[in-house]
Amino acid sequence: MKFYSHSRKQQKYQKLLSDHLKEVKNLSIEQIPDEYKKAYEIMALCHDFGKYTSYFQKYLETQKKTSLSNHGFISAVFGGYAALQYYGEESILPLIIYNTILHHHGNLESFSTNLPVKFKDVSRKDFPLNVLDKIDISYKQIGDMRKNLFFISPDFEKLGLLREFEQFIKKENVIEDTLTVLKKLDALSVRNLKSEDNYFIHQMLYSALISADKISASNTYIPEEIYVNYKTLDTIRASKFGEPEKDIDKLRTEIFKVVLDNLEKNYDKSKIFSITAPTGTGKTITGFFAGLKLSELLGNNRKIIYSLPFTSIIEQNYDILVELLKKLDNFEGNSSRYIIKHHNLATIEYESEYRDYKKTEAELLIENWQSGIIVTTFVQLLETLVGARNRMLKKFNALKGSIIILDEIQAIDIKYFQLVDYILKKASEYLDLRIIIMTATKPMILNEAVELLDNNEKYFRIFRRTKLIPKIQEITIDSFIERFKKDLEDKSYMIVCNTIMQSLKIYKELDKLGLNREIFYLSTNIIPLHRRERIKEIKKRLKNEKIILVSTQVVEAGVDLDFDIVIRDLGPIDSIIQSAGRCNRNSRKEIGDVYIYSIVDEENNPFGKYVYGNTLMNISKEILKRYDNILEEKYFQLINEYFNMVMQNKSSQDSREFIKSIENLDFSEGEYSINSFSLIQNNPGYFEAFFIYDDESENVFKKYLSLSTIKDFNVRREKYLEIQKNIKDYILSLPIKYINNFQLDKGIPYLPKEGVIDLYDFKTGFRRDKDDKYMIL
């Protein structure tokens, strides 16, 4: 009898189970430090132990699951048992091996979830009910293995686990006894390492297992990553930009040179660096080349992970880097081996000369970060470092030895500053990371970073592109509109609001005035496709026209727009300064004015309160009311004052609790368990809806609906990935109160074409109730 690892009906190849186990070991073993290689070997060779039953082999033939064909639990117990034979009861590694195998097909849970409640005088009543069921099934599976010893034993002899296998299937009460010892390890905290060590060891072993398992199961060919040579690309950069002629370009060149020179002097003095420079000074290129130079100085090829807060900026920065990379001789046909972008709206494709990758294979390579340069979101990066989700943790080990560039780090919620500071410092130590943080408004985070733009206050003083003009006496929308009309000049304007309803009302009131100029609207109330098109159109119009844009905060970080005048509703000072970065961006005009208003609703509540809460709003107001105006040269001082006050007033409880969960390996049990961490708060009061806006979206929706007729999961997934980006182009997140406006009979709420006419406006997006207080950017 032969034992296989995966369905022969779904795969065009047959893979013996023993070959799969060895392959999983070999695929990731080099990622593991020497002291934990044995632990990974045990884990890899045991992770599919439960597939050595006739029950599972029958499932491969029929595709009909039964409780007896489940293999995760018995595999985990066997892995724990084998590890105990090697390590004894003085190491936490058997417990980690048990937990990682148990959850290698799902998300991580805390140890105690699947262990008895105590380790002394244990009886059946001390096991959770779900575990009791699994124990009973495991003994039936062991009985089945005993019948097939003649066929199974040779495999375990080759795997080097014959003794452990024979002891395990012969020993009475082996399941309960093994779980009891593992509970003892957990309860007595037998941890011969510092607490955070355990977390990084656990995540490293888990990541190695799940990434290798998926690669082996899919039979995906792993292309070799290509690392860019600094000198080669710098020659391309110099040729592309030439000798600077404008003052702003000369300044960007100077900053580039200062940063790279300082890096060369200080690269071995720290693992964490910062580039604090005014907006519009070329931090994208400077930071990226600093990463390349750092890799060269450290003497080996290191993956560069360029992380940003928003998907819109990812596309922009990715395109900037590709413009340089495509000048390399073999970039065409191998672009994905050089650089990939990874976010929820990205097209799933992987370009390599080795082969044409299917969408499912491309997805796997992208999620494993199989490339020399990764452009991605804070969500992907930080929810991998602090995470329990299987899908996120596949790439945990891809971080090892990498250079991480964090652009606009101040966009992270302040309540997570302490957590992010903690996890990045620990990761730099345990994963040998180098970190470069870049911002114009450096927050109180990673303060030990070596600043690469020394004397950076000088550059803030040089700039006189903008000045802040606080007008923070409370004002209603109607009064604001009257003042705007009265003060309107022959200039371009951007009005940045705090909430969607505020922005919609201001846009509509301005539109009524008949100002004889184009007024644009931008927020997440518009489907993503229209948002991208709108930004391109605005950029084009700004070259020759005096347009008005009414927006929410979606324009604040990284969106390359340049207005004569910016008006920002009162918010956190770092957000205000980011908005100022969209005013007179390239110093082409006289000093640009950035007006700050405190706009209130009908109940006299500032709109910013709904987004940022009272603390940040009050701190900003307290600082700004001291000034009649603030020149750009003072922004550096202003932001430092703001963050100092914030850190004194803002609670860091969330951060402290998540840090405790990391140190205690609490993946799933506490209020602040690791699995509950998310940079983007999932609001249960919202739902996602698909808008059938045009013929293209109607065609995409039909393809989406046809997926339900495809029974084969791999084929269905392949078809879904072909249309994934197109689907998301037409999806909005909306308050649940609107769900009855949508059709609910197709699995996803949707709005047919006839409904779109009534409920969606091309200029402003979804038509909301006038009294809607829901706040989305």
How would you sum up this structure in a few lines?
The chain is an alpha/beta fold and 777 residues long.
How would you characterize the overall build of this protein?
The protein has 777 residues and is an alpha/beta fold. The protein folds into 4 domains: 17-218, no CATH class; 230-457, Rossmann fold (3-Layer(aba) Sandwich), CATH 3.40.50; 463-649, Rossmann fold, CATH 3.40.50.300; 686-766, no CATH class. It contains 30 helices and 19 strands. The chain has a 7-stranded parallel beta sheet with strand order 3-4-2-5-6-1-7, with helices on both faces. It has a 7-stranded mixed beta sheet with strand order 10-11-9-12-13-8-14, with helices on both faces. Strand 3, helix 16 and strand 4 form a beta-alpha-beta unit. The longest helix has 24 residues, at 195-218. The protein is globular and about 90 Å long. The relative contact order is 0.08. The model has no long low-confidence stretch (mean pLDDT 91).
